[in-house]
Model the fold of this input.
Amino acid sequence: MSSAKDPRATDAPDTGAAPETPTAGARPAAPGGSGPQTPGGSRSQAPGGSGPQPLVAIAPALTLLPGAGGPGVPERADAARNRRKILDAAARIVADVGPEAVTMNQVAHASGIGVGTVYRRFGDVATLLWALLDDRERQFQEAYMSGPPPLGPGAPDDERLHAFFDALVDRVIEQRELLLAAQAAAPSATYTSGAYLAMHTHVTMLLTRLRPEAQPALLAHLLLASFSPSLMHHLTVERALSAEELKAGVDELLNLGG
Done:
């Protein structure tokens, strides 16, 4: 999942981390463009089918789908508008009822796009949901790598670090159900995914400037571990903590070092 490189990344010392440029590989679509398969080889949903299988059974190994036809493929303006309407409608449905309840008919109705167009564009529910996850990750990357400060370049490094983790709280809560399914499907793949490597590189860069005497790459891993989808689910659902309470806790954690 590519996005613009953080203009300040080139100023960071060599810490052994990759440059601050996301490098997530796109998972190829199944032959015919009909989306991912289950481990047994069957489709997750077909037009007129009985509904999607559990996401854990069909989740790709965190190599997320390209947002618009693959790298270097231009997208017509009307196709881009339809894609945005479909993804935004899917996001609303996921927020209201959870990903397991999403159907292509629901998304078509909510987006005002014909169900045939939705199927042609995404193939099945699984492909649509993973494209949604990828789309939100792209937006998040663009915000922290090239968006306005304090999340993006232009603010002091400590402010950017706090802003990044505040935004990450919102990001994980918003996509908690999908991220949980991805974590369950491939727990260790999280740490080799393009999304995680981009975040780790960004946090490492900021920590290198703030705490050059520390081990920035290790600290970045430990801080990001706080945002495990399973932990965030426990804190927000089982412990009923609000996003603001979580952000305050992260701020305290960041301030422990003085």
Q: What stands out?
A: The chain has eleven helices and no strands.
